[in-house]
Amino acid sequence: MTAELVRGQNHPLPHTRLEIRVTAGAPLMACATLADAQGTVGGTEWIVHPGSPSLPGIEVSRQAAAGLRFHVDLDALPPRVHLVRVLLALPEGVGGPDRFGATAAPFAAVTSTEGAEVASFTLTGLDSETAVVALDLYRRQGAWKVRAVGQGYAGGLAELFGDQGLAQARAFAAGIQEAVARHLASAVQTPLPGATDGGRRRSEGLPVAPQPAPAPSSSGPPSSGAPQSGAGGAVNYTHPGRRTSTPPTPPPAAGPAQPGRPPRPVAGDATGWSMDERLYNQVWSMFEDLARTTAAYRSAMDFAESRLDQELDRVLSDPRRRIGGAGDEAREAARAKHDQLAGQAREVLDRDLAQLVAESEVVEPALPPAYARWDNPVWHGYRVPMEMPMALRLGDVHLPERPDLRIPMLVRLPLERGLWVDSGRSGSEAALMMDDAQLRGLAMDTAVAHAARLLAVHPPGEFTVHVIDPAGSGARSLAPLTASGVLDQPPATGAGGVATVLATLTRRVDLVQMAIRGGAAESLPPGLDTGEQLLIVNDFPHGFDDRAVTQLRYLADEGPSVGVHLLMVADREDASAYGPVLDPLWRMLLRVTPVPDDHLADPWVGHAWTYEPPAVPPGSRVLFQVLERVASARRSWRR
Fold first, then answer.
1. How far is residue 423's CA from residue 444's CA, in Å, rounded to a whole number?
2. How many CB atoms lie within 10 A of CB 627?
3. Percentage of the chain exceeding pLDDT 70
4. What is the pLDDT of the chain when averaged over all its residues?
5. What pLDDT, on a 0 to 100 scale, did the predictor assign at position 572?
6. Average pLDDT over residues 244-265
């Protein structure tokens, strides 16, 4: 199970030999400090950095790169070490970004040496900082944990080391920068716009100038880590040991960008080690770009309106200018200035939106099934995967400035919280125009579409769906699941069925939790399904007594950590009799709707995003066809 951490959150480490993998939109330097139980760094000899890249139990890279790895063996650390701080910093004087706010947020993943991801952390919220404490690995009562920190320093490594009590921090930081400069030719750089490879090339971004490769010596081939180029040719930034480390080039038909125009968009034009990861990062960057450009437009319009109000107030405050030609001229000048500012703001917005629309048009067809809409042709060639993807599409989001520009809403897998499909009458116009029966039926259809996608993106035997439908009212919507054979048991009905399913899943959560805490996973009962579990609940709270409600709350709270997830279809008003008892349940679940609804709040820029659920095209049998292939693969896996 992977834990996606937020700033300040911690997570136990099940392994002592680890890798910390960092991806970013620009080259970064890797450092780490070792500290004792009081958090004190003993001196420069307790710091690993590109000039001194290894100490017992930890090793970092000698060079700056957009993809870094820390190798950690917690058992090999000196006994005095109780804390390892993982540090990232921007190299100075290389033509790259001069602050973290000018590049994509770094992403750090803690994995086992076999590559199994344990925890991850996206370092958002950085702006003027040039160095950051990304993670802490710390020992508490004999057990190691990881904590997401994200503490940035505008003064760079010098300020960071000074904050940790290091003497002569500025001179030491300068030495590290010098060590990185010596290995600069081997850094994985972001090419200039127009090069064949590289990261995202936003019009507002700051490209990193690539450094030329060193001339090969006559005594042998150039270093395997250095970018290579032929005589007079473009530098080749392809990593020699990784075929997927650079985005694909645009197809020949697209042609180069016209002078003065933004580059032609390319699917997968983002950082990442696989095409799926690059597409995920690209979609996230599109979301951030749309949020930022819309926020800038709204701010500019607010300024134009405020300026107009102030100028009109000045006209009205002067009795000599309230009437007559002078007043009219002042008012017309104020409105003309307002229109000019508004026109300039709209022109910039339209330019940015046009670029995002063009990017969406090439990204959408290239998405894999886990990220694709149901009308994407990729589903016609669907094959049951052999491994779980990194994310799943739950629908689309958009803003009123360009409703037709829909950004895929992707959530990381495995799910960290359950889902609640709200079948009640929300404030949306679409919901108010439907009667209760239509809305409840559409909500159940939406839940089935989510469940089908979850089944489709997991390998056979690694995801199981259970259904509670106490009154049998969801039979029509559940037909794709029941008819295809992907359910191990038919939907549970009545109070007895509700009690049986909840007791089974509650027991599974208890057993797996005890096994994990006791370090005895091999002692689980034979035949216990340890794969991910999804429980669809329809018509809540019909058929639920107080004990069943308590068990449901327990599954929502404790289930995700051991692979048990809820997918509830419910109207909160139907459960109003329970009062505040159920408030924690609703807060634990991610609310989605069966119709478009602008309930997704963005606290960073203050937008209210409109969510649109995934819709299966009318008359299409794509859902049945996909589920039939899933059922066939499950039968073959069990033989």
1. 8
2. 23
3. 86
4. 83
5. 87
6. 49
Q: Torsion-angle region of residue 10: left (phi > 0), alpha (psi -120 to 50) or beta?
A: beta
Dig out the tokens for 584 from the structure. 């924690």
Only one residue has tokens 């070792």, namely 34
Q: Is 635 exposed, middle or buried (0-12, 13-18, 19+ CB in 10 A)?
A: exposed
Quick: pLDDT tens for 124-145: 889 899 999 999 999 887 889 9
Give the count of beta carbons closer than 10 Å to the beta carbon of residue 147.
19
Contact 193, 204 (CB under 8 A): no
CA distance 103 to 99: 8
Distance CA 574, CA 568 (A): 13
Burial (Cβ within 10 Å: 0-12, 13-18, ≥19) of residue 73:
middle
In contact, 304 and 342? CB cutoff 8 Å: yes
Would you say 170 and 158 are in contact if contact means Cβ atoms under 8 Å apart? yes
| pTM, to two decimals | 0.61
Contact 269, 282 (CB under 8 A): yes
Query: Which residues are within 8 A (CB) of 568 and not within 5 positions of it... i.e. 6 or more apart?
Result: 418, 419, 420, 421, 536, 537, 540, 589
Give yes or no for residue 234 having a pLDDT over 60.
no
pLDDT bracket for residue 322 (50, 70, 90): low
DSSP letter, residue 398: E
Alpha-carbon gap, residue 537 to 559, rounded angstroms? 15
Query: Do 565 and 534 form a contact (C-beta atoms < 8 A)?
Result: yes
Strand arrangement of the beta sheet that strand 532-540 belongs to: 463-468, 532-540, 564-570, 419-422, 590-592
Output the CA–CA distances (angstroms, integers) from residue 72 to 2, 109, 573, in the order listed.
18, 13, 51
Buried b (16+ CB within 10 A) or exposed e, 318-353: eeebeeeeebeebbeebeeebeebbeebeeebeebb
Q: Report pLDDT digits (tens) over 144-202.
A: 999 999 999 999 999 999 999 888 899 999 989 887 876 553 333 333 333 333 333 33
| Residue 486 CA: distances (Å) to CA of 361, 369, 381, 625 | 34, 18, 19, 12
* Residue pLDDT, tens place only, 22-75: 998 888 999 999 998 888 898 899 999 988 889 999 999 888 888 899 999 999
Site of tokens 């507002």: 204
Pairing of strands 65-73, 58-59: antiparallel
pLDDT: which is higher, 117 or 324 = 117
SS3 content of the chain, % helix, strand, coil (to 5): 35, 20, 40
